[in-house]
Amino acid sequence: MKKERQQIVVAARSWLGTPYVHQASARGAGTDCLGLLRGVWRTVIGHEPEDVPSYSMDWSEPQGEERMWQAAQRHLLERPVGAMRAGDVVLFRMRNGSVAKHLGIISAVGSVPRFIHAYSGHGVVENTLSTPWRRRVVACFEFPLEDL
Fold this sequence. Notes:
- It is a single chain.
- The protein is α+β, with helices and mostly antiparallel strands.
- It has one domain (3-47, 61-147): endopeptidase fold (from Nostoc punctiforme) (Alpha-Beta Complex), CATH 3.90.1720.10.
- Helices cover 26% and strands 24% of the residues.
- It has helices at 3-13, 33-44, 67-75, 131-136, and strands at 25-26, 30-31, 77-79, 89-92, 102-108, 114-119, 123-128, 137-142.
- The strands form two sheets. A six-stranded antiparallel sheet has the order 3-8-4-5-6-7. Strands 1-2 form a two-stranded antiparallel sheet.
- The longest helix has 12 residues, at 33-44.
């Protein structure tokens, strides 16, 4: 794994055990999935590229707007889902027909791929990217590594 990708995984793992708190981004105190990504960005790249507006738990689902996907496209580099690498960001659609509103960071690839995410009721955890999770992945992105 390239040094920069390893930095992303190490930064994400440093958040393990952080409780789930909607709209938070404070390692050890509380975070949601976007807050985890924001915290890793701050550690690895620096200043966040834009202020995050307040958001509800439904992530604009009633309007059908792909706000999280659009934000990822503004600041991350899209990659083919089938070519995930450690350090990549994956975007999930939790239910068919809903907007994509959950994300995680790939921590290991190979025969047992894993990802780190902040999950309601569980906090920041590292899970196997099992078939049920893999089916929900709708996009894959990488951090803009030239900024490192």
